[in-house]
Design a protein that fits this description.
Number of helices: 0
Organism: Phocoenobacter atlanticus subsp. atlanticus
Number of strands: 10
Order of helices and strands: EEEEEEEEEE
Distance between the termini: 53 Å
Radius of gyration: 16 Å
Structural class: mainly beta
InterPro entries: MORN_2
Pfam family, one: MORN_2
Number of domains: 2
Protein name: MORN repeat variant
Strand content: over 45%
Oligomer: single chain
């Protein structure tokens, strides 16, 4: 292990003292959970990374803390099925991505009516 590589947590703060983001590192790479918060302390996004951020699972939230979307990144690009949610938490749609772009013919592969 290189002694110069960062291991452990990095915590960044807004000027008002609230936590902005918490990033876990191992051997200099993001490894584990990367969490971002709004200035008022609400959860904005969570990414789970392994040995860097190129491949990770991510979820994003609105300012009230409601889940907006979730899916997988491959080589830092959306890949596979992403789920989009309504404010009440019900599933609104699923979109399929291939290397960062909506797969040909699959803009919205499923749409859920309330």
């Amino acid at each position: 292990m290189n002694e110069d590589c960062h291991n452990g947590l990095t915590i960044d703060y807004y000027e008002n003292g609230q936590v902005e983001k918490v990033i876990a590192y191992k051997n200099g790479y993001r490894n584990g959970t990367y969490t971002q918060y709004s200035e008022n302390g609400k959860l904005i996004s969570v990414r789970t990374c392994n040995n860097g951020a190129k491949n990770s699972f991510a979820q994003s939230y609105d300012i009230e803390g409601n889940l907006l979307s979730g899916g997988y990144y491959k080589n830092e690009q959306k890949h596979g099925v992403w789920k989009i949610y309504n404010k009440d938490g019900t599933l609104r749609s699923k979109e399929k991505y291939c290397s960062g772009r909506v797969c040909a013919g699959f803009n919205i592969i499923e749409y859920f009516l309330r």
